[in-house]
Amino acid sequence: MALENTDIAARKGRVPMVAQRIILISVLLTIWELGSSLTEGEFWVSRPLLIVERLITMIQSGELLRHLTATLVEAGSGLLLAGLVGIPLGIALERFPRVAKLVEPIIMGLYGLPRVALAPLFILWVGIGLASKVLMSFSMVIFVFLMNVSEGVRSIDKDMLDLMSTMRASRSFVTRRVVLPAIVPWILTAIRIGVGLALIGAVVAELIGSNQGLGWFIEKSAGRLDTTGVFTGLIVLMAVAMLANFMIVSAERRLLRWRGNSR
After folding, report:
1. What pLDDT does 249 receive?
2. DSSP class of 15
3. What pLDDT score does 9 carry?
């Protein structure tokens, strides 16, 4: 009992993780602001206060919303398309091992190909519009879904699959009732990884050819030697990735808690 009381008291005395993160970020921003001011390094690394001022100006003018919306639509569409293609493809490859062995060298060859090099090709194929950015994001994420789902299917209890086979369950029934519920954590992990990669794909495509988006804004700012503009775009991208990761982690915890309670 004494140990339990001590443990409870220790927990109450701890600073919440959210507060710790806020303190850490505040300290880093303070160091950045002071270091840039004292060393006159605004041209090289800007300053947090200047970035905040730029963000306010862009929000008031609607420029931030325009660029952010364009990048989110491109990255989100690529991520969604990669999930719609990668999840069933990963399941199919594990359900048909002979086909998987046949196409494995091709898949690994495509996976090892630097997808950034495909951006000019996508622009040649479909132009500098939305489609080329979606294809770029798709190419960055598709293999994450494919490999995670394949590994998830591979980790399913073989006894469960043998039981379904003994009961003469159809492939569609096994997929719906056994395979899909088992690979949910793997899919969520793929989404967490894929969010950042989808943003990278969209931004890279915008850097090569576009007239809007955060990548285009960063390139335009760099061309004007506008360091504050470059860091503003980078900070917005980082905030989007952090927010998306937080939302996915929260959804994953709720989903896995529901699954645990339903057993």
Report:
1. 86
2. P
3. 47
Which among 79, 91, 66 is positioned nearest to 241, based on CA atoms? 79
The CATH number of whichever domain residue 87 belongs to comes to: 1.10.3720.10
Taking only the tens place, the pLDDT of each residue in 146-183 is 999 999 988 888 777 777 877 877 778 888 888 888 88
What digits encode the pLDDT tens for the residues 74-94?
999 999 999 999 999 999 988
Question: Residue 119's pLDDT is what?
Answer: 85
| Tokens matching residue 71 | 């990048």
Look up the pTM and report it: 0.85
Amino acid at 21: R
CA distance 245 to 176: 27
The stretch 201-224 carries a mean pLDDT of 92
Residue 131: name the closest of 189, 59, 210, 186 by CA: 210
Residue 17 counted as domain residue: no
Cα separation, 160 vs 169, whole angstroms: 11
Q: How many independent structural domains does the chain possess? A: 1
| Range in 20-24, 52-56, 253-257 with the lowest mean pLDDT | 253-257
Count Cα atoms within 13 angstroms, Cβ side, for 225.
3
Query: Which alpha helices (H) appear in the chain, and where do they start and end?
Result: 2-13, 17-39, 42-45, 48-61, 63-95, 97-112, 119-126, 130-154, 158-166, 171-174, 180-208, 214-223, 227-262
Q: Could you give the CA distance from residue 259 to residue 250 in angstroms, rounded to a whole number?
A: 14
Work out the burial of residue 143: count CB atoms within 10 Å of its CB; fewer than 13 is exposed, 13-18 middle, 19 or more buried. Answer: buried
For residue 129, is it within any domain?
yes
